[in-house]
């Protein structure tokens, strides 16, 4: 375990097992349909890569990059689009892939945006959910795990761009972000 991590919440094996279950559920629900899976960079990148391998049907993938946190550990509530989708999503079934729903501000903004673009349906899959901190009313259609109100790192989640490549989901020691 990395020295800045206080506790491992979900090991690589536990995350992998849960992703296989979610992937199977998604494949069942979208059977015979055309699905566009949209990963939200950068946090969702590791989860996205593992998840699409476990959806046993052909899907199209695309990415958006948005930022609301920057270097801070609190959401600013202002969502900036840094990279948009490559193509129109009009009439298509889309699945947004997130690493974590915290305040919910990022996702509610994104979901509204994709609905306005006339997608046939917009659903959300998130690896993690931190329900205690919700400011916008939003839930995941598919969820990996709920987490307590601590700062989480690993498996794509960062603090100041570090810790994303830890292969597990853990709690960052508070002294790292509150010196
Ligand atoms: O529910 P919220 O309070 O809006 O927080 C969740 C969002 O914040 C993080 O992204 P961030 O903006 O830090 O960018 P990153 O994915 O590049 O780390 C995370 O990846 C989610 O997208
Ligand atoms: O707990 C978190 N960790 C990392 N990034 C985040 N973005 C929202 N919440 C978190
Ligand atoms: Mg982040």
Automatic annotation (TrEMBL):
Its EC number is 2.4.2.8. It is found in: Cytoplasm. Gene3D superfamilies: 3.40.50.2020. Keywords: Cytoplasm, Glycosyltransferase, Magnesium, Metal-binding, Nucleotide-binding, Purine salvage, Transferase. Its main location: cytoplasm. It holds the Pfam family Pribosyltran. Residues 10-159 form the Phosphoribosyltransferase domain. One of its GO terms (molecular function) is glycosyltransferase activity. It catalyses: IMP + diphosphate = hypoxanthine + 5-phospho-alpha-D-ribose 1-diphosphate; GMP + diphosphate = guanine + 5-phospho-alpha-D-ribose 1-diphosphate. Its cofactor is Mg(2+). Pathway: Purine metabolism; IMP biosynthesis via salvage pathway; IMP from hypoxanthine: step 1/1; Purine metabolism; GMP biosynthesis via salvage pathway; GMP from guanine: step 1/1. PANTHER family: HYPOXANTHINE PHOSPHORIBOSYLTRANSFERASE, HYPOXANTHINE-GUANINE PHOSPHORIBOSYLTRANSFERASE. Purine salvage pathway enzyme that catalyzes the transfer of the ribosyl-5-phosphate group from 5-phospho-alpha-D-ribose 1-diphosphate (PRPP) to the N9 position of the 6-oxopurines hypoxanthine and guanine to form the corresponding ribonucleotides IMP (inosine 5'-monophosphate) and GMP (guanosine 5'-monophosphate), with the release of PPi. Belongs to the purine/pyrimidine phosphoribosyltransferase family. This is Hypoxanthine phosphoribosyltransferase.
